[in-house]
Amino acid sequence: MRKCFFPIRLLYVHFLCRLGLAIDISSSMAYPAGALSNFTHFEFSFRGFHVASMEGLLQGLKFSDAKKQADIFQLIGVKAKRKGAKSKWKDTQTIYWQGVAMARESDEYKALLREAYDALATNAEFRAALLATGRKRLFHTMGKTDPKKTVLTEKEFCKLLTDVRSRLWSSDL
């Protein structure tokens, strides 16, 4: 029964997208869906560091070494993802900020993610792409759902984007 869920869900999301009620975020999709991918080159500052893409930031968080993190923060898209794939974070479920460890599923990590997406929202091009989604429901069906296998699940990603979008509408950012 579990195996049927995924294809049915994909059909459902595709249907919502065709109706204009949803957006399935992927770097291969047209604007704004493609622009909202973490792979997109949107520069922003986060806690005093220059970041070239959200993917670079997320992949950098997998390493305890502060210098290595700063280097990975400069990467975009697949290059960042490949660097992050070399980490062993899954073994310990530990993420790092400048050498300080935190559990992958901790409130501390969730707060760091929210702060990071708020920082990304200072980039005018990102803001424009996010606001271009209107009130459509956001999906990222290519994303993973198990937090033990990814530093950002589909649910977390879409909630962060939806929350940032809501705060932008209310001018809280």
Description:
This protein is mainly alpha-helical and 173 residues long. The chain has a single domain, classed as YbiA-like (Tetracycline Repressor, domain 2, Orthogonal Bundle), CATH 1.10.357.40. The chain is built from 8 helices and 6 strands, in the order αβββααααββααβα. The protein has helices at 2-18, 54-60, 66-72, 77-84, 89-92, 107-120, 124-131, 154-169; strands spanning 22-24, 44-46, 49-51, 94-97, 100-103, 137-139. A two-stranded parallel ribbon has the order 1-6. α2 (54-60) packs antiparallel against α3 (66-72) and α2 packs parallel to α4 (77-84). The longest helix is centred in the first third of the chain and has 17 residues, at 2-18. The protein is globular and about 45 Å long.
Morphology: globular
Kindly report the name of the CATH homologous superfamily: YbiA-like
Q: What gyration radius follows from the Cα positions, in whole Å? A: 16 Å
Topology pattern, helix = H, strand = E: HEEEHHHHEEHHEH
Helical segment count: 8
How many strands, which pairing sense, and closed or not: the largest β-sheet?
2 strands, parallel
Please state the average pLDDT score. 94
Number of domains: 1
Assigned CATH architecture: Orthogonal Bundle
How many strands? 6
Cross-sheet strand order for the largest sheet: 1-6
Q: Classify the helix fraction into a percent range.
A: 40-55%
Strand content: 5-15%
Q: Which structural class is indicated by helix and strand composition?
A: mainly alpha
Q: What is the rounded distance between the termini?
A: 43 Å
Q: Which class in CATH terms? A: Mainly Alpha
Briefly note the CATH topology name: Tetracycline Repressor, domain 2
Low-confidence runs of at least 5 consecutive residues: none
